[in-house]
Design goal:
There is one protein chain. This protein has 86 residues and is an alpha+beta fold. It has a domain of 49 residues. It is built from 2 helices and 2 strands, in the order ββαα. The chain has a two-stranded antiparallel sheet with strand order 1-2. A hairpin with a 2-residue loop joins β1 and β2. α1 packs across α2. The longest helix is centred in the C-terminal third of the chain and has 15 residues. The model has no long low-confidence stretch (mean pLDDT 74).
């Protein structure tokens, strides 16, 4: 692995001068102490699904669900709770 500092990460904004899209929000509803189910925060499921698919660069709902579960697992605190985003 190399440490290439000549190519810094540049956010993708689509068109020059255009702001980045807003982050994709997810609501978690606790199923049990170690698991929560992902839901759209505003209830507009059909419209919402387009955003995480685009964010993950896929057309697969299964891939989005698996990715969200991995993010949820990464956000688990050692005591079993979840980190709450700002």
């Amino acid at each position: 692995m190399t440490n290439d500092t000549d190519n810094p990460l540049i956010p993708v904004t689509g068109k020059p001068g255009q702001d980045a899209p807003p982050p994709v929000r997810v609501t978690l509803r606790r199923v049990n102490a170690n698991h929560a189910k992902n839901y759209p925060p505003d209830g507009e499921t059909k419209v919402w699904w387009k955003r995480p698919k685009k964010a993950f660069g896929t057309t697969s709902c299964d891939f989005v669900n698996a990715s969200l579960l991995q993010l949820q697992a990464a956000a688990n605190l050692p005591s079993g709770g979840f980190r709450k985003s700002a």
